[in-house]
Design a protein that fits this description.
DNA Polymerase III, Chain A, domain 2, 3 domains, 13-stranded antiparallel β-sheet, five-stranded antiparallel β-sheet, 21 strands, globular
Amino acid sequence: MADPESLLTIGAFARLVGLSSSALRFYDECGLLHPQEVDAASGYRYYAAAQERRATIISRLRRIGLPLQDIRTVLDGPPEQARAALRSYAERATGLARTARETTEDVIATLPDPQELTRPTTVVLPGPELASALRQVSPAAAAVPDIPALHGVLLQAAADEVTVVASDRYWMAVRTLPVEQASGGDRQVVVSADAVDDAVAFAAAHDRVRLRIGETAAQLEGDEQTLHLPLVSDQFPSYRSVLRGLPPAAGRVTVDRARLSEELAALGDEDAVVLTSGHQHLDLRVDGDRHGVRLAAICTGDPLAVAFRPALLLGALEVSVGPEVLLQLPAEEGRPVVVRSADQGTFTTIVMPVRRDTGAA
């Protein structure tokens, strides 16, 4: 056992290597960088200074977008395979950068000039970030208002962040956004799902927006413009209770998001698709079939199988960000599955599986 005084807390190690604590937890979960020790009683992670080089390499390679599978090859594979993986990625990235530069210049030329927002606000945050969060979360809202609160998006404003939540009971999406300025106490409102598109367009058109929430009204303000937000009066369910009630993950699978999305989209209207984790792979098959598709994956924990409606899981993947997603699988059938993005720790999606014997939720 290492000398406890020589070990670094996860926060201190994160500052040393230029990674966030959430990123270090993710790299632990996907098997790239385990802590030196984990306190059995508290679960706190501790790192050794000797791990700085590996963490720094991971950080540098992730900053250039290298996939986790290639990073694993660079760190743990033969040198010739590591060189090949890096050179291949550099060639692909060069072509993508050229296309990205041309596209962004074309789009920038069509954008209006940004205007500075100077008026005081209740909660100030970047408009494009709020627009992104609303786009990302709102697909989880119920399509019909049989439960009025679920046919809307929760906006919860606090002193240091705004939380955006939507759920239709079968999946829930949550994203938090840091605020630049805030005044007043914590408040929340449920914005009608029918008004989300207008809110997205308004927020996206302003560098910064002011979200003002009152007892019975809410509005977005930017520059000299104001958008009043239609509200749902019903109480939104406690999303924090749902998050606290999640079972511990019995297995974790990190897989290429685009490949998994392609295979799910190809299934169309199938009732259920079974995902089975294995040794560095994830198998997909229609429930009841013997044959399916095998995807490369980073798997930890025991092999597990879980079934989803393809369209439901596909929806969760489409609003995620980054090249890979992490699926946190529970041991007990029928419990929620957490779909996390490797590149956006502020966004969480929870998806309800279906039972494999009947295909019903």
